[in-house]
Each structure stands twice: as structure tokens, then as C-alpha cells.
Design a protein that fits this description.
Layout lengths: L1 H13 L4 H14 L1 H4 L6 H12 L5 H8 L3 H13 L3 E5 L7 E5 L1 H22 L4 H18 L13
Antiparallel strand pairs: 1-2
Helix pairs in contact: 4-6, 5-6
Length: 162
């Protein structure tokens, strides 16, 4: 029992200060704005598929499965549901007739735009209560975290403050 506690303390000392508090704040913010931040009626997995397809238009099911670390039947079901919702289009690959390319429809693109817009509004409201230096530090830190997790980001844009 004592070893488990010591192991936890060692892990905590390597973690950024306040990480536990930050995670609790993120959970509280998510809960407070659940209706605004939600991806409903799509699941988070379906929304992630849409983000990947948006980033790589024309991706095929095999490559999509690799990006998701998911089995082919699961990826196919996700895409079937997105196609039925009108958010995804499958077209024959231009060079390989056996392969299918995946693209978002206009409705799919609009849906992602709506999710981003709602989330950006909530984030901007919170960031407006931060100093410009804190906003910049947050943007740099989040970009570094995304890069470390494996989702490279574009350089953060600096917002004008009023």
C-alpha cells in the first residue's frame, strides 16, 4: 500500500504544477457548457472521423482505420452512419477502382463549422478574462501539448484585445 502511494507521489512530481486542478476545471467547464460544447447528435468518435476526413480529403477506409487505431468493421460502421446522416460521401478512387475515397459533404463541413464556432465562442469568453500574456502562454502551451500528443498544430493566431 505504501509503495503505491510513493509511486503516485513520484508521478505527481513529474507532472506540471496544478495539472490536477486544471483537469478538474476543464471538466467543470465542459459540464457547465455541455449543451454548447456537445457534438450531439454525433458521437465523439464520429466527430473525430469527420475531423480526420476534413484534414485528409480523399482518405480511404484503410488509412482512416490506421489513424483511428480501429478495426475495419468499426470504421465502416462509423462511416456508414455519417453517410446516412448526410455528412460523408464515398467516391471511387481515381487510380484504384477497388478503393473508395472519403470526403465530407457540404452538410458535414457546415456541421464541423458549427461545432467549432460554438466552442470558440465559449473559449473566447473565457480568454477575454485573461491577460494578453496569459492568452499567449496558453496558446503556446496548448500547441506544444497537441504536438506532443501527436496532433501537430498550426501556429496559434494572436487575437486582438479590446
Amino acid at each position: 500500500m505504501r509503495e503505491a502511494h510513493a509511486s503516485h507521489d513520484q508521478h505527481a512530481s513529474r507532472t506540471a504544477p496544478g495539472i490536477g486542478d486544471m483537469l478538474e476545471l476543464l471538466e467543470a467547464a465542459w459540464e457547465r457548457h455541455r449543451d454548447t460544447l456537445s457534438t450531439a447528435p454525433l458521437s465523439s468518435a464520429q466527430t473525430r472521423v469527420m475531423y480526420l476526413i476534413e484534414r485528409e480529403p480523399g482518405i480511404n477506409l484503410t488509412a482512416l482505420g490506421r489513424r483511428l487505431s480501429s478495426a475495419a468493421p468499426s470504421v465502416t460502421r462509423l462511416c456508414d452512419r455519417l453517410q446516412a446522416a448526410g455528412f460523408l460521401r464515398r467516391t471511387p478512387h481515381t487510380e484504384d477502382r477497388r478503393a473508395t475515397q472519403l470526403e465530407l459533404t457540404e452538410a458535414g463541413e457546415a456541421y464541423l463549422h458549427g461545432i467549432r464556432h460554438r466552442r470558440e465562442q465559449v473559449l473566447c469568453q473565457a480568454m477575454d478574462r485573461m491577460s494578453p500574456d496569459a492568452q499567449s502562454a496558453l496558446a503556446v502551451g496548448l500547441a506544444a501539448l497537441c504536438d506532443a500528443v501527436g496532433e501537430p498544430t498550426a501556429q496559434p493566431e494572436h487575437r486582438e484585445t479590446a
